Amino acid sequence: MLQVLRQLLETDTAAAPADGKVTLREVLKRDWLELWYQPKIELATKRLVGAEALARGRRPDGSVIPPAAFLPGAKEADMFELTERVILMALRDFEDCAVQGASLKFAVNVPVSALVKLPIVRMLRENRPPTNWPGLILEVTEDQIIHDLKVANHVAGELRSLNCTLALDDFGAGYSSLVRLRQLPFSELKIDSSYVSNCHEDKVNAGLCQTIVALAQRFELKTVAEGIEKSEESEKLLSIGCDIGQGYLFAKPMPKAEFLAAVSRRLVSHGMAAAAKPRAGVKTLNRGALAGK
User: Fold this and answer.
1) Could you tell me the residue ranges of all domains in the chain?
2) String of DSSP letters for the chain
3) Given this model, what pLDDT does residue 21 score?
4) Which candidate, 209, 286, 221, places its Cα nearest to that of 251?
5) Rg of the chain's alpha carbons, rounded to an integer?
6) Are the CB atoms for 54 and 36 separated by under 8 Å?
7) Which ranges of the chain have pLDDT less than 50?
8) d(CA 188, CA 168)
């Protein structure tokens, strides 16, 4: 549970409430929960290929409550309710993206225990968009899932029938053995941000990232590098074969409305470019638009 909290506690520009005292139960009960989205970028083409959904709270006066103010100390039952709401909200938000012509695969963080105790498969079956849905990625942390591979394999099998997959978050932080890695039912490995940091000049981090990418390729998994802040890091990761990047270099987490507006602007820009130059190839990511600037 601690690793899931750490993921949901990702920092952003939002300020904490003045008193700093608010519980997850209060956020849920008062219906203050909202999702912010951080884009996921295909490093080779700079295309927007998806986004990670991150929990935030918002008071009636418009002030944003960062997760660091309401997640620590949360009860398991409240974390399960949060997980359920986030999944349902992400499914609805996908449809809002689809209305604009964007089919993006969203990722949400879930505690491993929720895979067992929540009817996630039923929730997805009953609430997934009826057409043209690329699926959902459920991110779980290495340190949790490694202790119950039997559960992971069972749930992953059911999820595949719904076009949903599991991603192994913060890979490398748990120091799993290669033998156990072969048993993991994942489609995606997310490289821990501590290894991504300065990987262009830190030989140890560069070697770790390269090893993780090579392992992922061996097992036919995609790799996602978290916490990319420098163009040099992005270039290094691309050179070693990393598939997808996520981090402040491309965009910070942003409210749903801002994210949808950025997606819309990019689609319009891309359409205009394609009409003018039908053979111009893939358009690079408009970083300013995604950052909401």
Assistant:
1) 2-257
2) -HHHHHHHT---SPPPPSS----HHHHHHTT-EEEEEEEEEETTTTEEEEEEEEEEEE-TTS-EE-GGGTSTT--HHHHHHHHHHHHHHHHHHHHHHHHTT---EEEEE--HHHHHHS-HHHHHHHHS-SSS---EEEEEEHHHHTT-HHHHHHHHHHHHTTT-EEEEEEETSS---HHHHTT---SEEEEPHHHHTTTTT-HHHHHHHHHHHHHHHHTT-EEEE----SHHHHHHHHHTT--EE-STTT---EEHHHHHHHHHHHHHHHHHHHHH-TTS-PPPP-HHHHTT-
3) 76
4) 286
5) 19
6) yes
7) 1-18, 272-289, 291-293
8) 6
For domain 2-257, the question of CATH label 3.20.20.450 is answered with yes
Q: For this structure, is 10 an active site residue? A: no
8 A C-beta contact, residue 140 and residue 167: yes
Q: What is the pLDDT of residues 183-198, one digit of tens each?
A: 667 889 999 999 999 9
Cut 0.90: pTM above it: no
Active-site choice (52, 139, 226, 233): 226
Structure confidence by residue, pLDDT tens digits, 11-46:
443 444 445 579 999 999 999 999 999 999 999 999
Tokens 């009953």 belong to which residue? 126
